Amino acid sequence: MEQITRDHLRQLRLEIVSDIKKILSMKGTDKQEFDIDWLRSKAIRRIMNISPATLQNLRITGKIRFRKVMGSYYYSRTDLLKLFEDGK
Q1: Residue 71: domain span
Q2: Considering the entire predicted model, what is its pTM?
Q3: Average pLDDT over residues 31-37
């Protein structure tokens, strides 16, 4: 097994910084592929202006997909958009 050295960590940092710069320099539609597709409960409640109980109800009734990762719920942005489109 290869040991990780400070040089390895420096190289990784440089690659990460380079990737971030590429993402930030993209224009318009190219950035869409990096948009966040899963949002945390607090962000969803703020965007939709709903209570925690309402969000829980949407989750329990299966109206929106969710994932639970280490105790935090993440919700599908596309499901939320669909829910609002169907309501029109």
Answers
A1: 38-86
A2: 0.52
A3: 55
